[in-house]
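Predict structure. Chain length: 254.
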Amino acid sequence: MFPMLLPAQYSPTIASGRPGQAINTQTVGRGVYQVETGLTLGWERNNSQKLRDIAETTILRIGILDRLEVSGAVIGAAVESRALSGRNSWDRGISDTEVGARYSFLDNDGWVPALVVDGAALLRAQDEEFRRDNTGARFIVSADWGLTEATTLTINLNRTWVGDGTAGTGYAVSLGFSLSDRLGSFVEVYGDLSKPATAYFDGGFAYLIGNHVALDSSVGWEGTDGVPSYYLDFGVSFRIDGRVLRGSSTGTPR
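Prediction complete.
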């Protein structure tokens, strides 16, 4: 969201993975603890039916080395469905849990992109209504290019094994704009490369309250088999620099 302010690792301002589907190529930096949390409100319209879903996602990222971080994610969801009786019902609970790691291999240098590899295990620690059959996995390769002083292109390719014997390949292409020192925006297309290929769209804004706290909002559209769905997403990200808390001289931002 604020590409030209961000080196590959620790940066003076927080480098959040929110909002949007694509992940950037920044790691949080050694000794940094970062929390990214958000609420997504979704609607799906099929003929005369309008179904809703709500998801709350919280991700904890911990910097082990300047280029290496580990993370954990918990997603809680409430999903509305139409029963055979015609009455709507809700399934609520923990819908997903993940643990993962991210490593930054390259920094952006001209046409050479910044490059990061992110991997996660998709766990079975879920409520019964959402539990996957087996542990799954996901791998993402993300590349960033600084196109101008205020514009960055991010491309993701991912491969996911969801835990039910199937796998899929997806993509995300995001264009980010620095509108000011504190305000950024993005537009994005993402979807599946597996048959049939799909294309969904979203866009939004992020605002820096301070160097360590950011707010964001976005809106998106998805449509599968002629059934459109829409969502609104709101979130906050903040970080704690453990190096400063320990009184280390390395805690001074670079």
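Summary: The longest helix spans residues 242-245.
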